[in-house]
Amino acid sequence: MVRLFITTFFFFAALSAGAQETEYYPYEDENGKWGLRNETTGQDITPAKYDEVRGVTEGLAPVMLDDKWGYIDINGKEVITPEYDNARNFTNGMAPVYINRAWGFIDKTGKKIVAPKYYYIADFSEGLWCVNTDGQWVERKDYSYVCCGNWGYVDPAGKEVIALNYEGANPFSEGVASVKLNEKWIFIDKTEKQVIDKTFEDATLFKEGLSPVKLNGLWGYIDKTGKTVISFQYDEAFPFENGFAEVILKGKWLVIDKTGKITD
After folding, report:
1. Nearest to residue 130, comparing CAs of 155, 106, 113, 105?
2. Vertex 150 angle, CA 146 and 156, to 5°
């Protein structure tokens, strides 16, 4: 399971990848069309002719024209013809693309590295892509997530280095990943060794040394030894960012620090 947290305090999104090259940015004209501009010079790299333009990573930007996605370079040249139903940014020379209701990977020439076969591909993290087949989106009030199906991990060459044998998974973070096996969540390293000798009802990501996990219907936080650092008391709990995390307690959204103290 990969949860997308869209809240008033944090935005954790699995629909982007790679560090964007901020010298270049999409702009919209008065007709609602999009182009790409060089922020340093103010020069328009492309005229505003696209239905949508995303940020530049690794010298390429995804663009949508007539409901199909392709890529342009930083000179405005269309290097990959718009033919996909969706396209994401390049990371480590690969980009996820969506066609015929499945995600696959292409390289920067447009060559297919992995033919479309995945239901979902999470962001590239710590050298691996977390991927899913036969999943489904679940919409909640304040966030959504992909569940079910089969989960594993793909390396930058497109090889499934951790087979899709898991019932749920999250991207690697701080050297470990939470995966669901036999209806229980555990934490593994990249050799698939279980690194915390405990199982949980649910789990997300380690951030800043702590991960939200669920036991007996409530969420709390553990460290990498499995020790409970913030007690199990929350309806929902989300990863830390810059020393703070959002939680839901008795139906109310709150922000806590790493001691569990509620902040203003």
Report:
1. 155
2. 90
Instruction: Tell the burial category of 239 from Cβ atoms under 10 Å away from its Cβ (0-12, 13-18, 19+).
Output: buried
Residue type, 264: D
Q: Dump pLDDT digits (tens) for 196-210.
A: 999 999 999 999 999
Q: What is the number of structural domains in the chain?
A: 3
Question: What CATH number has the domain bearing residue 49?
Answer: 2.40.10
261 plus 192 within the same structural domain: yes
Strand order in the sheet with 244-249: 236-237, 244-249, 252-257
Of 90, 175, 98, 97, the closest CA to residue 124 belongs to: 90
Tens digit of each residue's pLDDT (9 = 90 or more) over 132-145: 999 999 998 777 88
